[in-house]
Design goal:
6% of the residues lie in helices and 37% in strands. It is mainly beta. The protein has a single domain, classed as Beta-galactosidase, Chain A, domain 5, CATH 2.70.98. The chain has a nine-stranded antiparallel sheet, with no helix packed on it. A six-stranded antiparallel sheet has the order 16-25-24-21-18-19, with no helix packed on it. A four-stranded antiparallel sheet has the order 1-2-3-4, with no helix packed on it. A hairpin with a 3-residue loop joins β10 and β11. The longest helix has 13 residues, at 29-41. It is globular and about 55 Å long. GO terms for molecular function: aldose 1-epimerase activity; carbohydrate binding. This is Aldose 1-epimerase. Pfam families: Aldose_epim.
Amino acid sequence: MGRRPAAHQRAGLGVADHDLAGLGGGIDSGYETHVQTLVSLCQGVRVRAAAGLPLPLSHGPYAAEVVTVGANLRALTRDGVDLVAGTPAGEICQSFRGAVMAPWANRVADGTYEFGGRQHELALTEPARRNALHGLAHWVDWTVVEHTADRALLRHELVAQLGYPWPLDLEADYRLGDDGLTVTLRATNVGAEPAPYSTGLHPYLTVGRRLDDCVLTLPAGTWCPMSDRGLPSAPQPVEGTPYDFREPRPLGDLVLDHPFGGVADGATATLTDPDTGRSVSVTVHGGLPWLHLFTSDPLPWGQREALALEPTTAPPDAFGSGIDLVVLEPGVPHEVSFTIHGTSGVTGS
């Protein structure tokens, strides 16, 4: 019989953040009992939920839940009707549903880029496509700064590291009000040198039916053709293309995983069920000239059941192209915000 590790190693005794939920699998009952006895004697051991701490919010007809892992938006409803397709409660986030993307949004090609006269190399977190995907803030447990009935403010101190050697203070501020959920993303460079930066949120919008039957309104003047690696070429006008949704029209079977640019401050994008009037919208308030749309076709949990509509400061691979790349100067805060709101299809709402 192979040698078992010491009981304290198997149980994670004295390590407060060890997940003990799966210890029983493949362990004989006597050893399992011994482990459970030791666990019961150990002070301070706890089981950490996969999504971290849930932070419920409510205001009028709206309710939401933010979780501390990734500062993710897990749920948003109006009159009890879903406006976003979030990860089931307590589960590990799939497909970046509701994720804060920072210090870059979407992809960095080959995980490499040049900034400040130096070459930097990131881990390839989308290895099949050889990209670094969606930043460094998703798989960390953010600190709760404030939690009230209608507000959750979370902070993460991003340390300087290989591939991204700039320390940042990041904040995700969620506020529910009469007009819906306003999300504010802040970043401050607490290092000594300028830092490259882009950011955004990754909500999947839903009106409760397949996207083929939905109507999309998208106030964007340009779009970017995409490679099979999810990397954009130069922006092109939407006029005269299948990607022009400046006037409301059905999505049909159009497959999207594309960035759309030229989005003005105060612009609103809307997904609508034309039969019920149920809708969900994103209104940008400044500093978010791009909306990345993804029709979720390859996802096992929601093929064309939800539309990722991601307000971002820049298109994918901005670290390589420089398009709308934000440069964070030391000590100078950066802030962007947008609001998600909708109608439930319930009479009068």
